[in-house]
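Illustration: DinB family protein.
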Amino acid sequence: MTRFGRDDDLTAAEFDRVDLTGARFERSRLRGVRITSSDLSGMVVRGSDVMNVEIDSPWIGEGDFFRVNGVDVIPLVEAELNARFPGRELQRAGDPAGLQAAWAALQDTWAATLECAESMPAGTVDESVDGEWSLSQTLRHLVMATDTWLGKAVLRLEQPYHPLALANEGAAEDGLDMSVFTTKTPTYAEVLAARRDRTTLVGNFLAEVSVGTLDEQRQNPWAPQHPETVRSCLHTILEEEWEHHRYAVRDLDVLEQRSEAQ
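Result:
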């Protein structure tokens, strides 16, 4: 176990893809510390300076609890996100009608966000905030999510990927053949066309899916040893959509504030 004491200065330290499982911070100052893409499972912070802290993770709700001063904040966070993004509460719908309603709500939400982005200064869709994906890259990644969980997992296509799809860093290490993807930066119009193609694919599938099909077994595309159902694959697509929409709205708000300040 590595131990840091009061003489160790971690001011503005950055932890990237670090395993902090079970880490414990006591009587520490965590101001300005940046932790990205790391495992914080089981982390405990006691009697420490954690003012002005921002946590952004799609997996908070998947744990048994996330306590702040003894209060489990998971239900509070979920309720607030559902209030901010109407339709998000449908992402775990179990029957065809519910899944269709969930997808329709997502399309309405994304349409409003894309319309907002188009009203912003030219080039906004390609701007990054704090090293995160731009809006254009986010849409490309959602093409990737659709191709992985619908095309590959559900439909079991031999080569499901659109050339403009954008994979996560490290996907090649997971066995993904990166040669199917373009190495050129597409135009935003090309990205929107790819995105429309894939949202239509999902919509058409949901329009015809039956309860029996939803119960059918599939393989997890990243971990074939773990079973999935068609339903759980669709839930993953919905989760990816809502989380990346939240990221997009968050970053567009920052870009809008920057534009107004100039």
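Reading the tokens back as a structure: The first strand starts at residue 14 and ends at 16.
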